[in-house]
Amino acid sequence: MNKSFYTSLALSNIRKNSLTYIPYIIVNIGLIILMYNAFSLTLEMDQESNTRMFLTLSYVITGIFSIIFIIYANSFLIKRRKKELGLFHILGMEKKHIAKTMTIEHILVSIVNLFIGLILAVVSSKLISLVLYKLIQMEPSYDFFISSISLKYTIALFSAVYLLILIVNIFQVYRVKPIDLLRGSEVGEKEPKINWVTTLLGIIFIGIGYFLALSVKHIMTALAVFMLAAILVIIGTYFLFTGTSVAILKLMKSNKKFYYQTSHFINISSMIYRMKQNAASLANICIITSMILVSISTTFCLYMDMEAQINNRVVTDTLVSFQIDDSNEEPDLLVADVYDSFREDALIQDLITFEYSKQSATFDDFNVVYTNEFSEQTLAIVITMDELKKISDVPYLLAKDEVAVYYSGESKKTDTLSIQENHFKVKKEIEELPKYIFNEFHNSTETLFVVVKDTEAYNKIEAVYPNGPEYFSTYNVFYNLDNSLSDAEKIIYSNNNRTNYIENDNVPLKVNSTLISSKQELEVMLIEMYGSLLFLGCFLGFLFIMMIVLIIYYKQINEGHDDRERYQIMQKVGLSKREIKKAISSQILMIFFIPVIVATIHVVVACPIIIKILAMMGLSDPNMFYSFMFASLIVFITIYGIIYALTARTYYKIVNTK
Amino acid sequence: MSFLEVNNVKKIYTSRFNSNKVEALTNISFSVEKDEFVAIMGESGSGKTTLLNILATLDSATSGEIKLNGANITSISERDIVAFRREKLGFVFQDFNLLNTFSNKDNVLLPLVLAKKSVNKMQEALLPLLNSLDIAHLQDKFPYEISGGQKQRVAIARALISNPDIILADEPTGALDSKSSDQILNLFKDINKAGQCILMVTHSIKAASMANRILFIKDGEVYHQLYRGSMNNDELYNTISNTLSSISTQGNTYE
How far does the CA of residue B3 sit from the closest CA of chain A (Å)? Predict the structure, then answer.
């Protein structure tokens, strides 16, 4: 037998198995496109940027899932082909000939994958990078180039995976007996027994995961708890599908009135029979669906909320705040000098300056105790009436030892407010914070705002501040910059202001620390972060949807072949075509949508904790996340429904061919 | 009028792409009484499977008519045919055609479930039948857990549970060892004695020698038939054997 014989045999094998090969090739091409682009974009980005970090994450995840994915798809391909290989063997081909044919076949398909994949990857790279640059609002470079490093890396990774599965396949050919090859996937499978351990474990793991997710109080621990809960729920989901599902089905079976109805009868028994091999794919689909929903909804939510977040955090172009050293003589005069130098700057407008104290504290029953722990939930702001008058109207008068109070949280009201050992009488409750007073962390901490009568009262509090007086007060300079400056110039200008007017050897005021926050800088930072995060979300969403499509498609083909015979027998015994169609569609529907229903429950339970995490990141309105989650769910179910319709059609076709 | 009447049945297969016609059944006529156990014999390609498929309503005749218990099978509409098959016919196949996803009990109940009978009715019918076939102890096992002979008993139970007018058996002993074959054939005989009409297609002389009457089919026609008369099984066996060899060697009629 000559070489061209093997090649033509391999080619005809590929053609004959196109129903399984074509999806395999498409998914491989998709993975290669994703991999190449994730890697080349990563190399394009700044070493230190968030975008690079997220892109690195995207190619690592793509790499890992590509390996898992290709191995999964291959195991399916081989399983379906065993019969055919057995036939060749019986017809007189030796195992080494079969192995040779398979190797040629495998190499051909691998070359096609890499060739088409890389061409499409290079062609699409410009488009994909334009999308990324658009999202992070950076100027893309307009010249087209091919990243040779990414090319090499992608080829290396995929070749390695292809080599690995080739070895596995050849090993399989040599290991099996021809009679097994002939029987292939037809080996009878026993009905699974109820395994109470996995059933219980499934319920327990998911229960604990849900409980953790729902009961998290502390916003700072939310992320860690979320991770833990997610892992528990993932493990629990596998147990749920392997153990609990069988238990539920058996329970349904034991109800005779329910079980002995035509469609229930056919579906329940075949689902129980199939659960063992199906459980893992259903659990995979369920978990991947949850991941898609979470990644898409969170990243979109943050991206769309960006504008509101910026306006929440800043009121003017620039805020310079500083704390002064204890060693300053006549600090008030020196601070006033600094204010003046800002005021004299021609490009600075709408200048507002004032002093207050902004510290973390605990706040229970109107008792303020200062702490060093940021996580202590309350940001206590203390200001004198005179300072407050600089930024807003103060339509009330306070006597000595009287205060006006605003609190964002809920607390039992009393007439007295204590700050460490100082007791004040609450004269007035303030409804709303003045414009320039804000809590950057308002989603993660409560805000307590206290107005005292004068410096005397203010100093009394300063005296009991445990970390020392030089850390108690913050001096603030708010201003806008002239619009003749561009956004980029504004960022530079603000930073120059800081070095020129505060941190300069010629300025006599000694400062402990200065903090500058520029609206434009924040904008750039958030756009870059949320833009690349959204890119990552969509990228992974695409990857995961591709995985789901492949898993579902192969599952349907597999089941179609398994079911064909059963439905033909039932037809002989007296089941009409219409009833078959009904039974098939209700079964596919169940198998299809059970994972999505479980995933929906997972993400709905996860919503509160995700909102807490997003709030920590600065989400302006927590409730908007629900609408994004809802929208993602709708979009996902639409796409999933299309996949369902397409695969169900393939399934009917397989079942109905004689 | 006989219980089953087959009159001038003809079946011609035409392929879709060329005009080649294959005549599977040329002209078949015979009749069967309610209490009969009839075997149909013939070589491969003689048309006996086509005939059985037509009787089973799985295929339709090109011309001719078939009447079962007064009802004309050939004119039943496509819609009613499934119900007809379910209620009037019982099938026993060579490869059992049991479903591995169902327990043996559920395999037997399948026709009743498809007919949407109540759970009580199913239970009433099930146990006496399983007992009479001696498979009651297997009811909660699955088909892949029992032997071939036991599988065929389950399949027979499935064929009998809806009280069909006629049992159509296609090589029922083809996949069984000789001991199980004997048991299954004796079972058929007992069922027939209880008043059940059975029509069996077979290659096996042994199987055919259990019947009351044997029809020989050759080239799409009933070529010959043989009545048991007063012969015992062994005598009938020899007669069938002789008939077959004479048919295949020269085609002479032998009575």
Answer: 22
